[in-house]
Each structure stands twice: as C-alpha cells, then as structure tokens.
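Quick question: what would this complex look like in 3D?
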Amino acid sequence: MKDFIIPSDDRDMGTPAKTGAPVTLTVDGFQVTVPEGTSVMRAAAEIGIEVPKLCASDNLEAFGSCRLCVVEIEGRRGTPASCTTPVAEGMVVNTQTPRVKKVRKGVMELYISDHPLDCLTCSANGDCELQDMAGAVGLRDMRYTSGRNHYDASGAGTLAQGDMRARAAGTDLGNPDYIPKDDSNPYFSYDPSKCIVCNRCVRACEEVQGTFALTIEGRGFDSRVKAGNAGDDFLTSDCVSCGACVQACPTATLQEKSVVEMGTPDRSVVTTCAYCGVGCSFKAEMKGNELVRMVPYKHGKANRGHSCVKGRFAYGYAHHPDRILSPMIRDRIDEPWREVSWEEALNFAAQRLKRLQATYGRRSIGVITSSRCTNEETYLVQKLARGVFLNNNTDTCARVCHSPTGYGLGQTYGTSAGTQDFDSVEKTDVVMVIGANPTDGHPVFASRLKKRLRQGAKLIVVDPRRIDLVRSAHVEAAHHLPLRPGTNVAVVTAMAHVIVTEGLTDDAFIRARCDTESFADYMEFVSDPRHSPEAVETLTGVPAAELRAAARLYAKGGNASIYYGLGVTEHSQGSTTVIGIANLAMLTGNIGREGVGVNPLRGQNNVQGSCDMGSFPHELPGYRHVKHADARKIYEDLWGVEIDPEPGLRIPNMLDAAVDGTFKGLYCQGEDILQSDPDTKHVAAGLAAMECVIVHDLFLNETANYAHVFLPGSSFLEKDGTFTNAERRINRVRRVMAPRATYADWEVTQLLAQAMGATWTYTHPSQIMAEIAATTPSFAGVDYALLDELGSVQWPCNEAAPEGTPLMHVEGFKRGKGRFIVTEYVATDERTGPRFPLLLTTGRILSQYNVGAQTRRTANTAWHPEDLLEIHPHDAETRGIKEGDWVRLSSRSGETTLRAALTDRMSPGVVYTTFHHPDTQANVITTDYSDWATNCPEYKVTAVQISPSNGPTDWQEDYAAQAAQARRILPAAE
Amino acid sequence: MSPDKMTHMANQIAAFFKTQPHVDAAAEIAAHINDFWEPRMRAQLFDHVRAGGAGLDPFVIEAVEKDLVAPA
C-alpha cells in the first residue's frame, strides 16, 4: 500500500499568519521579510528558527503566558515574549542569549516543580511538548523541594504516581489540591494533575470552536481548567467534544482515550471525513493496521485544522461487532440469511436481476446510491444502471435532501452548486442562515461562521426553532424570523418585496449580469402589496417590522451571504424557495466575489459529488439531461451500449412502481431507505413487493429486513476514492487499512456488473476518475496526481481553470445572464386541523448522523441515546404532558411513541424530533407529499397530534418483531 | 402510484407554471413532466386524462393533450 506522504510543512509556527506590508528584520543573524503584524516568534519560524514555547500555537492568537519564548531585541529593554511582540522594520532579534537561556531554564524548573515525573508511563510519552521543551532548554535539575502540589494524591510528596499510590492509605486522598481524572467524556480524559495552565484548551474552545465551555477557575496556585459551571464535568458541561482542546493540549492533561489505550501512532495518512458535507480533511494516525486516532489536518482547505465530535472521534463503527463481513442470500425475506461465498452471492443476485428484466421488462429494476459513497462508487453504480441494466432507474439519497437545489440553482444560475468556498465566510459582513442548523449539522463550518460573527459580522436566522446560533456564547442574531413551517416562499418573497419597493436593489449588477426581461416580470410580481411583510405576517407568523429590518440588513449591510439547508429544500415548494434565494442574491448583487453567494449546506459528505456523477435518473454525469443525444453519444461510444433517452424512476417513484408491481429489483448501496425515507409504511410495502432487493452496506440496516442479497460494504478507511463537499471541493479518500470484507465497494459493484455480463476491468479507482474526467467537461482536469499535488480542487477544473474554481459566476453566470423567476407562494396541502392540530418538523443533532447507522454504533450515544419530541410548554400543558413523559405522535401516515422534552425554543403549535433511531422511526409519521419539481419529500411539515402514552405503539412492536425475524443468520455450511 | 398522488403531483407542477408570466403554462408543464417523469408515470397520466382527468388542473389536461410526449 502506497501511503500518502504529508506535504512539507506541518510545523506549528507559533502564532497565526497575518497579511500586511512587508517588514524586514534580522533573527539570529539571518534576514527575514514577513507581513506587518507578524509575531517575532513566527518570523523566526519562517526561517526555521524555533523559539521554545508552551502556550503558543499557530491556530490561536498569542497569549504570552508561559514566558518560555522570551528573546532579546537590540535596543529594547528586558526579555519580551516573542509570541506577543510584533515585528518592526530593522529589528535585530537574538533567540539564544545567556540571559534568555537562564530565564527559560528557570521557567521550566518552576513548571516541573508541580508536575508528575512519570514520563515513561505517561500517555503523552513521545508526544509531549513539556517534555520536548525541558529537553530544548537543557533542564537538568529541579531544585525545589516538594511542597504544595497538584499531582500527588497522597500528599506524601512524590513525583511518581506508582509510588504515590503505594503511599496513599486506601481512598484517603491526603492532598486537598489534588483533583482526580475526569473520565466522563467517552473519548478523552482530563487529568488536572498534569495541567500547566497554558490556557491553550480554553483558547481553542473559544477561538477555534466558539463554544466557550472551558475556563480557568481559581487564581494563582489554585488555577484549574474547568468545564462548565460548578458541579459540571466535561460530559454535563456545554462541551461539544470537538477535540480542539485535546489537540491544543501540550501535555497529557487532555488526552484521547484511544492513545491512552494504544500508545502513540507510528504513521499517518491524509484522508477525508465520511460524515457531513463540510468534508473535513483528517490525518488518520495509524499503528500498523490499527487506527489510533483521527486528527484534523491543518492544511485541509475546508476545515483549516478543526473538527467535530463525529469526524474526530466517532469512527469506532468501522470495527463494531455488528459489521457483516460475509455475503449472504435468502430466497424469501421470512427466511434466515445464509452466509455464502462472494461468487455465489453475486451470481444469485445477477441471475435474479436478469430474470426480472426478462419477465417484467428492461425498466423493472434499478439502483440507489448513497451520498456517503465516493464519486467513483456512485459513478459506477449509475453506469451499472445505464450501461448494464440499460435503463435510467438510478437515484441517490440527494433526492430526499438537496434535489431542489439542483433544480432551483440550475434554472436561475445555470448549474447546481454552491457559489463559494468556505473561506469566503471570513469576508462576509451579513450572513443569512435559512432552514439550517449549522452548529449541529455542519459544526466545523459553524465554528468558522461564529468566528466571523465574533469579529462583528451580522446574522439573520430564518428558522421555526430558536436554534443555538440565535443566541449562544458571544453570538447573537441581529434578527430571528421564526416562521411557520411551510411558509419559506412567502418569507423570502416578502424580503424581495422590501428590497425592491424600498429601492435597495443593486441596479448596476442587475443591468450587467441578469436577464432584463425576467427582471422586469419579477419586479412587477414582487412589488405587489400582497407580498409585503405586513400582508403575509398572519400567514408566516413573522413580525413585519423584523422582516423589513432583516431585508434591509441583507441588502445594504455589505457583503451578504446566504447559507441554507434542508429546512429550505424539504418542502412542497422546496425548489421555489431555492429560486427565491437565488433571486435575493441577484437583486442585491451578492454573487460572484468573496464574502457573498448562495451556499447550500449539504447534508452528507458526498451529496454534491453523487449529483455531479449522474446519479439522478434524468441526467448523465455533469448535469446533462438524458434526452440530449450528444451527451448520450459520449457514453454510448465509450461503453458500446445504447443509452435510454427516457428519464428513469426517482426513489419515491420506484417505491410507487414497486407497489404497482412494475418495479421488481433494486441494488441499494450504502443507503437505508426504510429508515431515512418518508412514510415508512409505504417504503416497506414497496420493498416487500420487490423480488430482488440487494443491500450493499456495512450493517444489516433497516432496509435489509426486506433484502434477498446482502453484500458487505467497506468503510471509508478501507478504500480509495474522492468525496466532493458542499463547496465543490474534490478531496481524496485514502485507504488506510485493507477492506475487512475482502473487497472495496467499487470492486463489489464491478463484480456485480461482471456477473451480469459486463466487461469492466478497473483495477484502481483512479481509472474510474480518469473515465469521469474524460467524459465530463467540468471534471476534465481532475486526476489523482493533481489531487495529491494540490491537496484538493474545486470543480470546474479544466483547461480554463487548471487548479479549479473557488468562486463561481465571477464574470458571468454559468447560463449567461442570471434569470429571475417568479415565486408565487402556494400553501402545502399538509394542513393542521382538528385531528392533527400541530406541525411536526424534523432534523438532526450534533452527535448523531442521519439514520445513525454509524454514530449509534459509537460512544456518541452518550449525548443522544434516543430521539426526543421537542414541544413548547404550552402545548404540553394543555395535553397533560410533562418533561420525559412517553407521548404518542400521530399523523395521517402513522404513529409512534417517544419521550417529550419541553422547551421554549419551539414556537407554540410546532413540535420537532430527530430521525436517528430506528425504534422511534420518525418517518412513520412523515407523509408522501413532496417538492413539486423534484419529488424531494416534505419532511419538514407534517400535521400531527400528540397525546400521553404508556409504551410503544402496536406498529413499533410489530416492526421490532419483523426486524428481529429478518435479521436471523444461519451459521455458514461447513 | 395512486391516482390521488399522481393528480396531486401534476397539479403541484401546474401551480408553479401557471403563475409564471408570459409563458405558455401548458407547454412548460408538459416540458417539465417530459423531463422528469418516467414513461410509466406519463402513461398513467395519459390514461387518467383519457378517462376524464378527474381532479386534474385544467392546465395539466391541456399540457397532456398538447405537448406531453407519449411514452415509448
């Protein structure tokens, strides 16, 4: 296996990079030129001179507390700290003089006087900056006699913990200054005895993560790191377990438990997280074939060295005992599974699929891929449908999340993609977040956003819930528009009304960049008083004055950007809202430069990529409709088949056709449609009606309860490929260990194609990417060598943009002139009434991910062991529901039970839950209504009723019984 | 697909295009359905219109009669 060598400079430069006029100085006799505002420490590091340091790190602002980085500067008095001293023209710095050496040694001696010297058995052994600095300053003695200290529980005055334990009498901790380890967080421990109070963890929590969960309590000798308030430990505090403090800690005070258990890693491979659409780069730190830890990669362009609890810690599912490692088959779904060879399973699947096509026709089978799969895998799966099944029945889970983005941005701007890179948020002045909850769904982006908000950017939140961003530590939205679910279009159109009628439009931009005829129509439409905030207030529930103020801020507050999520798309009018958002950005000229733009926050790691790769049933890779003969010809020539010119079935259409008896076979890769898709009973009926369901997954997921063939999948650690994140950034996924079930997922798809008669001969995913590049204009310049060289690249990447395209629509829109489209509000037919008087909206939380297949199989369950129903106290009171009570949640589709959580973050009349747990199955409640243009389900609006309950519904019990039956596995035949 | 669901979906498409100014709404509705509805869905819509088109928006009926491509 060829490991990827981490490129050149992974050093910690001490303080952050600055931009400014060049300044030249001399450090230890060498000249160096750096931007104004750079610290002396960083200037020295630029020419390879490392000044000793403990409290400095280049992802944190300089703090100047450890006094180890002192230097002498000619013409200045004393020994200033190099981290807090900015460079000046002509400055002459000496980093090693007898005076500073003496100061440093004295400082180190003081640190060590209150630190256990159990270095050989310490978990940070080999990875401890305190140890390194003791060596660097040449500390050879510690002259202080033992006295009050923090490390010795016995109070007997010893530096070795074993000795200390031997001397301690039972549980009597003789030392009142000693605090035992806090092991409450499942992934890392906090050992106060090893803390040197450098403040790096506290600053990382504030500056990098923006949670402000940590502080230093006490003064002087009593100073300690403290999570949360008095009485809190790490788990009960506000800590979101992002790992930034652990990464910042120079000692073993905050340490990954995996390192405590396994020791330090011996190599690392740069790869990409397999969770959300931020697409963070990580170093997978390995020891042989074992993964010791995941550490956010400093040069990752999406995350810039930061991470969240999922990517950083929640990878244990890859080795969970529930992983299925043998292929399995069965004739009927009421039989137990039989473990068989790969060959037998693939032949069984291929024979069945061929028989179905012979009996029921070419279009009777299809494929579904997950946006958790790589570009190469999704490309192959759609190729399987188009090139082997000879139909267009291919869809992806992006159908149920961001398909309206594809339609809406395609119609207005000409292509389906976010317009910016994540760095753009650093230049924005006004951020409008609509229908997204970034602190939970896209945590690393949220941290970058909060950083910008703390610098003074203004925030508008449009969301029925009072999400954390509305008000949390050092962040407060200028305007929160708590709209009634389902009224997005009315709110967005009312904002446009304010902008147009109050003369806040950017006329020069519109004249130069947009289609004038469509603009005239739109002006006429949107100026109508029926779209005014006052006119729609009773409908949307948003106070008109607040909406007007938000619109003015968006239009005239400087660089304004929109970030939106599934609260926009998953509605009957999802596509219309996306169009409305695109209109807003064009009206105000907020497109085509840094700090502005329209940014869909993609739910899963490869939503963008799976759409790019032609997973949708109406379009070939690169968003080319199958009706176009010239696009079809490219693939027909290459694959030697005739491509079906008719659009195929979308996921909901496949299920409808299955119930009708015309869709009979499905290959489902990495997706759990039974849990994730709406109206569970209908999904189950569709699956039960099929004669060959092939599930290709890590686990026996809910869909597999209805499957006839199970093909074991490989985790992201076990395969090569690429993911494309929400900013169109193509990042490499690198194999760090061998596939546990023999084959990587792309190989399994190829084997299935071969079993069906195809002659595919890929031997590495790079060959698949070569085929993608050769056939898709926006990917023409992409290859693995380029990705290794540049780290990542944003499409379009071709002759015109050989290193990719960070910002889109800079000179002109992809389609030429931007097109305004009228956005008439049409109320959803899902309405409250006497039977179902409340509105349910659904979403996800930080620690769990989608259907939870991965995160439920990690210690993340410590934060979220079950789905809860969030309900306003007034709605609860009128129904006699108290905190923690079991409640029955019912809609016209079905009913389930779960426990109630009373919170005023919900508006009265609106309730909320997550869909992470199959025993709750929130989607048994959601309905079959969908977006008018794309069939994206209306997950965000369901009329429901809630009543007290004393246990699971009959449906839940039947479901659990069926699942248990369906998961039986016979032992393999000898 | 149940007739109600199909009617609902088709009417939703009509609800968008019939509010667009200066366009032939029926032609736009037909184009959208031609682009995104799989042949058996279009066949079901054809059959429903032939059977009287109960519940369908008049624009949908016009679209089907004028511009919908018959499934191959």
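Answer marked as accepted. Residues 1 and 41 of chain B are 8 Å apart (CA to CA).
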